[in-house]
UniProtKB/TrEMBL annotation:
Gene Ontology process terms (BP): endoplasmic reticulum to Golgi vesicle-mediated transport
Membrane topology qualifier: Single-pass type I membrane protein
Keyword presence, Metal-binding: no
Pfam families hit by this protein: EMP24_GP25L
One term under GO cellular component: membrane
Protein name from the UniProt record: GOLD domain-containing protein
Amino acid sequence: MKSLIKPIVTIILLSSVQFTHSAPLTLDLLPGKPECLYLDVPADQCMIKYYFNVQDWLKDDEFVNYKIYYIPNNQNNKGENQRLLITKENQRIGEWQFKAVTKGEYKVCYESESHKIIDIDISYDCSEIMQDEENMFEDPLADNTISLKKINDLTKNNKLNELITGLDQQVSNLRNNLDYYKLRNSRNLKTVESTLKRITWFSLGNILLIASVCVLQIV
């Protein structure tokens, strides 16, 4: 009976994720069993944003693998034509965004060889698309006062926005790596301190043992 209840709860949880704009949650990932979250994007060119963090970084095996798929409308969740968009391996933390070229259903699947608890926040943002649709009816060439320099500036601004987005992603990755190295160095420092304490107590034990043997020989 318990084995039947768990799949039903999982289906209900994932179904609720499909129709929400933002879905922060905590995922209980079992060993060797992939778990997938679904997001229904309502329009083309929306931005999908996601963040996840594996709890308890102090363990050496706190890594997960994840993949992101696009599911065509005429396919079910197990369809063979679902498109693999992104794949990452051995990740502790991740924060990224990408453009959903086509509206529809997207899924993020996590998998690990050991039990993990993962904090996840996945959402979509279509505000830029709505703004672009409002500007579609505004022809920049309809204004006689516009210059070629202004058109070139608009093109440069688009390229600058793309560059800023790329730099933001690199800074985010650098911050995540620094956090990881900070925790790893802290863990290594604790290991060294523990080893030094053991060496100290071991040395004191040897001194007491030698002193005791000498006293016994004299007596």
